[in-house]
Design goal:
Blueprint: E1 9-12, H1 18-29, E2 33-38, H2 41-49, E3 57-61, H3 67-76, E4 82-85, H4 100-128, E5 131-136, H5 149-168, E6 174-181, H6 187-196, H7 204-215, H8 227-238, E7 249-252
Parallel strand pairs: 1-2, 1-4, 2-3, 4-5, 5-6, 6-7
Length: about 260
């Protein structure tokens, strides 16, 4: 399927690496103008440098876990056609050791960032009669991970938020969906896997496979997904070809979730 994003502007939060950067590069290759987001000038510059042709690529330094950061993005870029709420944080932590501050911090980044930006951009998309919003959630939304239940809660909340915004945009030409990846190769997952499986004689691919086999035994692919594999799903939902899909939680989890729906 050929996807054409010429003339469209896409904002991808948390896009200096991993799924966010893979999505940005895929949209750019199909003609979109890209706005990258990260929290440091160095990481933004490094991400921009990965584009062979930096034309149609810009970056904005902003912490989307804060109201000020989201406001800065909207002020600098008042209109976008595609919003990918990808920014997210996670860390293993026993439930009874998670402090109030940790609950609030992870909720602010993983949930409120997307809500703030969707609230700002969707009404403008509705006025134009077209737009795409994708919340990058996780299979952890459906199977709360015992090693980080606070993360699972935020991923469930993202699915609910996406559904709510989709209902608010009904009939407008704007679609809002969530994507639920399984464990996916990234800097963050490498740190996470190394913390849980500290055997450094294993390559990250081997450690990732061991993690999937032990901690996510429902996986039908038996490995970590690649960022590009998940980005393909996001880019489809960002395209005009996905016009009948809205309010949905689209699984890209490699079969981790043991359910047929």
């Amino acid at each position: 399927m050929s996807k054409d994003f010429v003339g469209e502007t896409a904002l991808i939060t948390g896009s200096t690496a991993g799924i966010g950067l893979a999505t940005a590069r895929m949209l750019h290759a199909a003609g979109a103008t890209i706005i990258l987001n990260g929290r440091s000038e160095q990481r933004i510059a490094a991400a921009v440098a990965t584009f062979g042709d930096a034309d149609r690529v810009s970056g904005i330094i902003a912490d989307v876990g804060t109201t000020e950061g989201c406001d800065a993005i909207v002020t600098a870029n008042p209109d976008v056609d595609i919003l990918v709420n990808n920014a997210g944080v996670f860390a293993p932590r026993p439930l009874f050791e998670i402090s109030d501050d940790e609950w609030i911090s992870i909720f602010s980044v993983n949930v409120l960032s997307g809500i703030r930006l969707a609230r700002a951009y969707i009404p403008r998309m509705m006025m134009r009669g077209w737009g795409r919003v994708i919340f990058v959630s996780s299979e952890s939304a459906l199977q709360i991970p015992p090693e980080m239940p606070h993360y699972g809660l935020t991923k469930t909340a993202q699915v609910a938020a996406a559904r709510g915004f989709a209902q608010a945009a009904a009939g407008s030409g704007v679609t809002v969906n969530s994507v639920l990846p399984g464990p996916t190769e990234s800097e963050g997952i490498e740190r996470f896997v190394r913390e849980l499986i500290p055997d450094h004689t294993l390559t990250i691919a081997e450690a990732g496979k061991q993690f999937v086999e032990t901690a996510r035994p429902g996986s039908l692919i038996g490995r970590l997904a690649t960022a590009d594999e998940v980005a393909e799903v996001i880019c489809f939902l960002a395209s005009s070809q996905s016009s009948v899909i809205t309010g949905s939680a689209v699984r890209a989890d490699g079969g981790v979730v043991q359910a047929i729906m």
